[in-house]
Q: What sequence folds into this?
RNA sequence: CGGGGAGUGGCGCAGCCUGGUAGCGCACCUGUUUUGGGUACAGGGGGUCGCAAGUUCGAAUCUUGUCUCCCCGACCA
């Protein structure tokens, strides 16, 4: 087997964390900003986020949810109204205390003591409390329900340890907030959002997930139930890629979200909240990336096809003819559809060698790269590479196809759809192969994770769903093995054995994993 | 926030121990060459060494402080 010269210097199997960072740099997605925990998202990375936004926003609106925008600053007092909520977020809030700077007399600017705020403002870590205020104003009658809102925004959580896309101090997300008349309605909205996230992850990001309910200790602060989608990364760790919460009447009580029923009775609303963030991009990297860089699923690729004419820069007439040939190809491809949308195609005529640009787009993970040289033009063909089938294993070189220009254009939609499903299938197969089921005891769990397997994946165990101190003890035990409970998968087999923590009869199955 | 490591042209690094105003590879620019796959050769531009203060005749090199990043932990989308 020939030696393959990969486009990255780091390999996943050698140092997954270093590889992850190299992908972000090599694909030109984002960079450090110099501000603690905050990143600059560059066009390719932001373009992926815009695609996710577009597709998810359509799903949100299709469910009858309307977009709004709420302030970035939230009065401190709002957080004091819900005890668990403030406890959960208090340690990671950025607080604005002054509204003006003055010169300190030594050439430095300092907050003006005379401009101290009466009440500090918190930079939102999440918006339940301020949206709750609005809901309290907007909801009077049963006719105002359900109230279905969403906002696309940035939030700030002062995390101790940050990693690009996975955990940044500031991140971009959407947060849906809904109010309902009954518990049933609110719970079904919680599940609807969860299912929406599953579809978004699996269909748009080609990232298979396990949906399920979080255990009590992993709940969102102030929630009655928290549900999540969990994705398996290539190192076998779990990434919580989205959450949906049933908040009961906790926030309604705090903010006074009440309505008068048809019978004339005053009642508290049942509320929900749900969100996904730029973390999903980290999930895409660790799900689809390979030793040559990122592989972007076509549905969320800013450009699905990149055409690179091999311009010589010597013979203007020849270059113009080649550019025209490529532009016709661009037009033909742009008229095609894939995954229900017009194909996004870029003709890159910037000066520079096509061969060098090819590797730039390989690292970026553009699904299809088409190179066209003068000889291709004469023969009426193009040289096409699928990013998901980059290498010819026999030659160790890039795996070119040379269809005619017309065939290439006509087949582009089907090829993009095939790449989309191939990426999902690969990821799903890897996930399924790395979940070990029916692990019967905590010792077996420990053995599984202390074995030789470099990436031991997840294990499924049964438990008695302990609460309170018993749950804390179970969590402690798991922590010794750096494990966490991911969720109680929806649709799992019923329990039929003993709880690995208590030995008593189990009531359900849970997934354990190391996590991001 | 605790433990460890690191910040030197766009990227990756050497120099620092034994102070004397900066070097390599890639990238970039120019020219020649090559021309179907990450071409080769020659020439060239760009950094005052994270930031601040201190020691010194002199600091990338020593001291102190500070900011940022990476790894391990605690916390979390």
A:
């Amino acid at each position: 087997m020939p030696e393959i010269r990969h486009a990255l210097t780091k390999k996943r199997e050698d140092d997954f964390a270093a590889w992850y960072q190299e992908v972000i740099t090599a694909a030109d997605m984002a960079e450090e900003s110099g501000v603690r925990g905050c990143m600059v998202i560059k066009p390719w990375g932001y373009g992926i986020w815009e695609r996710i936004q577009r597709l998810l926003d359509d799903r949100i609106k299709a469910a009858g949810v309307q977009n709004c925008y709420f302030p970035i600053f939230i009065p401190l007092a709002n957080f004091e109204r819900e005890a668990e909520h403030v406890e959960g977020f208090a340690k990671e809030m950025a607080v604005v205390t002054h509204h003006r700077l003055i010169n300190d007399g030594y050439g430095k600017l300092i907050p003006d003591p005379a401009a101290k705020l009466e009440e500090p403002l918190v930079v939102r870590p999440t918006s339940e409390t301020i949206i709750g205020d609005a809901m309290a104003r907007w909801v009077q009658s049963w006719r105002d329900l359900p109230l279905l809102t969403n906002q696309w925004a940035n939030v700030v959580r002062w995390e101790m340890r940050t990693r690009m896309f996975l955990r940044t101090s500031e991140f971009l997300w959407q947060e849906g907030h809904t109010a309902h008349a009954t518990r049933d309605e609110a719970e079904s909205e919680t599940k609807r959002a969860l299912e929406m996230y599953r579809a978004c992850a699996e269909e748009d990001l080609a990232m298979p997930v396990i949906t399920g309910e979080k255990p009590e200790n992993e709940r969102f602060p102030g929630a009655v139930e928290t549900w999540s989608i969990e994705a398996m990364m290539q190192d076998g760790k779990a990434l919580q890629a989205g959450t949906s919460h049933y908040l009961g009447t906790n926030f309604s009580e705090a903010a006074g979200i009440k309505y008068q029923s048809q019978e004339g009775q005053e009642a508290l609303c049942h509320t929900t909240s749900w969100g996904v963030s730029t973390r999903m991009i980290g999930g895409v990297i660790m799900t689809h990336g390979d030793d040559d860089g990122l592989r972007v699923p076509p549905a969320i690729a800013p450009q699905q096809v990149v055409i690179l004419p091999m311009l010589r820069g010597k013979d203007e007439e020849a270059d113009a003819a080649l550019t025209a040939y490529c532009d016709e190809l661009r037009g033909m491809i742009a008229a095609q559809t894939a995954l229900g949308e017009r194909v996004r195609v870029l003709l890159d005529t910037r000066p520079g060698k096509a061969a060098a640009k090819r590797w730039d787009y390989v690292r970026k993970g553009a699904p299809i790269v088409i190179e066209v040289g003068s000889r291709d033009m004469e023969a009426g063909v193009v040289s096409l590479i699928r990013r998901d089938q980059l290498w010819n294993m026999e030659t160790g070189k890039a795996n070119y196809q040379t269809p005619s220009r017309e065939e290439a254009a006509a087949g582009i939609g089907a090829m993009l759809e095939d790449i989309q499903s191939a990426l999902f299938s690969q990821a799903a197969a890897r996930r399924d192969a790395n979940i070990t089921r029916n692990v019967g005891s905590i010792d077996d769990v420990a053995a599984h994770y202390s074995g030789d397997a470099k990436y031991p994946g997840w294990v499924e165990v049964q438990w008695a769903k302990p609460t309170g101190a018993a749950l804390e003890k179970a969590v402690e035990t798991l922590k010794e093995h750096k494990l966490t409970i991911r969720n109680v998968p929806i649709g799992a087999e019923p329990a039929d054995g003993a709880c690995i923590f208590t030995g008593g009869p189990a009531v359900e199955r849970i997934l354990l994993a190391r996590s991001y």
Summary: Residues 303-418 of chain A form a domain with the Rossmann fold fold (CATH 3.40.50.800). Chain A has a mean pLDDT of 92. Residues 11 and 38 of chain A are 26 Å apart (CA to CA).
